[in-house]
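in:
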């Protein structure tokens, strides 16, 4: 008797029930309603419903238009490729973690390669994905000029492509509405100037990311427009674009060079294309002893920027969260939909929201 108890410890009840459902569908070899399955298995209707939905999601069972369920041949396990922008960038790390978790929960095999923010590596990685016979690629590749080459490799091999944040030819786009997130960052900066600087600002800097192309650069265009709509006394020649490559060090160098030609005490609003750039701007402001002259808004809500805002002493006054944790589930489901031959929208925008120090104090950043 004790021996039997030990054996039962190794059984997984819900898995046994799922196998009962599969075996029953195989035996009947016909479409069945939820009620039919429930009556024949005598498993609780709630469990039967959840088991069937899971089997449909994983491709073992089909749900017909009439609402019935039938067994289908076991599908080949899908294999997706994920090309990460750079394993060194916090936002890229967050996206990769979200996609990896979602792939595991959906039963999708994931092949991950790192583009290392390098165009030539991105091309080699594309060729490797084709060699590995992936069913679809999720491409997080930031340099617009190489996008046609990368896209051609996949098109020529018949591999569907989802482009993350930077559009590629013949690809489904997934990411933020860049002009809109920029506009909202600009509005935040203008509101800060209105509250703290009596509606005055001497310079507006857009620390951009030219290599990502006009689509991502529209974050800066949107930010400038958001500021102009609320602070219409700033002369056009005081709106200046600087190149930061979306990274910390180049952004710091660009802003340090700009500051070397400006008078101390001038008030500067900064819209950064990424949070890594925002941190570079902050580094330059601190090095020059001019942090009090700055108000900086970033994009991505990476942990280091959250920490800066929580300190209550930082010139970073906000960041637009692109909700990186939602990328994975949506990307994997979008990929499955495409591979199964279903049509999807050409542009698939993610949710976003402004996060400020005030939000972090109130605890609303987790909402």
């Amino acid at each position: 008797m004790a021996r039997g108890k030990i054996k039962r410890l190794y059984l997984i009840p819900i898995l046994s029930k799922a196998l009962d459902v599969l075996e029953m569908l195989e035996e009947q070899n016909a479409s069945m309603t939820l009620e039919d399955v429930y009556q024949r298995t005598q498993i609780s209707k709630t469990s039967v419903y959840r088991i069937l939905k899971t089997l449909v999601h994983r491709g073992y069972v089909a749900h017909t238009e009439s609402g019935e369920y039938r067994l289908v041949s076991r599908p080949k396990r899908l294999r997706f490729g994920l090309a990460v922008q750079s394993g060194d960038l916090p936002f890229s790390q967050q996206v990769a973690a979200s996609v990896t978790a979602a792939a595991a929960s959906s039963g999708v095999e994931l092949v991950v390669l790192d583009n290392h923010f390098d165009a030539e590596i991105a091309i080699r990685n594309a060729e490797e994905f084709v060699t590995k016979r992936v069913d679809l690629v999720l491409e997080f590749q930031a340099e617009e000029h190489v996008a046609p080459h990368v896209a051609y490799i996949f098109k020529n091999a018949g591999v569907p492509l989802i482009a993350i944040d930077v559009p590629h030819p013949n690809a489904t786009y997934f990411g933020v509405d860049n002009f809109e997130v920029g506009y909202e960052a600009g509005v935040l900066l203008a509101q800060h100037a209105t509250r703290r600087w009596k509606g005055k600002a001497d310079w507006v800097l857009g620390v951009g990311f030219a290599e990502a192309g006009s689509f991502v650069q529209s974050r800066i265009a949107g930010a400038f427009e958001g500021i102009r709509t609320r602070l219409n006394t700033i002369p056009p020649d005081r709106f200046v674009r600087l190149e930061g490559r979306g990274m910390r060090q180049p952004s710091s160098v660009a802003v340090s060079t700009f500051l070397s030609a400006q008078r101390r005490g001038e008030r500067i609003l900064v819209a950064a294309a990424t949070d890594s750039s925002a941190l570079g701007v902050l580094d330059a402001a601190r090095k020059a002893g001019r942090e009090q002259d700055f108000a900086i808004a970033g994009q991505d809500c990476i942990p280091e920027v959250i920490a800066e805002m929580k300190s209550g002493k930082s010139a970073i006054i906000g960041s637009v969260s692109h909700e990186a944790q939602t990328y994975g589930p949506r990307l994997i489901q979008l990929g499955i939909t495409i591979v199964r031959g279903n049509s999807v929208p050409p542009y698939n925008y993610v949710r976003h929201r402004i996060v400020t120090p005030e939000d972090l104090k109130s605890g609303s950043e987790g909402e």
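note: The domain at 178-321 is CATH 3.40.50.2300 (Rossmann fold).
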